[in-house]
Specification:
The chain is an alpha+beta fold. It is built from 7 helices and 15 strands. Helix 2 packs antiparallel against helix 6. It is a multi-pass membrane protein.
Amino acid sequence: MSSHEQALISLVSQLALSFDGAILGVALAYAAVRTVLKLNSVSSALRKLHNAPSVQVSDLRSILSLDHSDESQPSDAKLVVVRGTVEAKSAIDGNWNILNSGVLVSQGTKERAVVLQRTQTCVYNEWKGFVGWPSDLRAIFSRSWRERESKVFRTVPFILAEGGRRPISEFVAVDMDGSRHPLPLTTVYHHLHPVNPSPYTFLEALFGHRYPVGLLDEEKILPLGKEISAVGLCSVKDGVLEIKSCKDFPYFLSEMSKDQMVVDLTSRTKVLFWSGIFLGSVSIGVLAYAVSRNWNRWKVWRQQRELQRSIRASNAEAQSQEEEEEEDAGDVPDGQLCVICLMRRRRSAFIPCGHLVCCQLCSISIERDVAPKCPVCRQQIRTSVRIYDS
């Protein structure tokens, strides 16, 4: 693992664990919501698949609600599962020249098909040499493979026909417009063509430059005569049966039968259900932990702030009290001296007796006793009141 990848992983982990894991909790909650939405979509597709009839090509017209008075008008589309063999649309014309021009031919095996996908992958070899990577000695001899792909996708109009019947009388045309579903393609050619090294290959490897080592050529086709299932909206257009993909469905053309599709969607539903429960539970736990930690941190911050305020207030009060004590400790007549310390002016009156005989500090010390009593009448006191001169 390179230093850049390690730095990226460290940054992502720090970001995920920031705010005591709140970012991670939000990400898990988002994943849980996406899983629930996907679960609803798959469950809806499973219900529709259960209700969709599974028929052969010859039985399609009998289950569609057709307007027999005018077959040129398109009928209402109905979700069906139809199984048949792949044939080129030109096969229904019966003309050999049209048949040859209406199919695709694999360059590797010369097989005829209606869908052809050719992928050419250029494989590069990159050697982090002495000049290219001097900072990490462990990666001097490491090689990283990089690939560049170029795809060619071609298709011709094709139909699904009843298997083994010639001439073709009953068929359904497959409409591929707007379909992004995976196709049941068969790999017929897979070969790696090596690239001969040039005189500059050694220099490119030494200085850390990449150089091509091979060209991977692969062909996938949908061959003629292959038996597949089509799941989609079937209707009659200009008197011809036509089926097109349904965006809410995960399948369009597949090698699986209806029962196999039901089993596959059922397993997906279970996986999504338990994944949603797991992600939701973990996200709730992480968010609860993050909220609790941040709440406790906020309470500690608030207590510290209140403590600082009280300390500042007590300091200000003590300072003002010291100033008053200095003022009271000046030239005080004998009749106004505190009977306890005989130094400061009388400032506190006891409740309920009402005697004004003590200064502020002495009254506070008397109130701190277990059974505070007035020093004059010896009556038990509840509190004292500060007396101010007008």
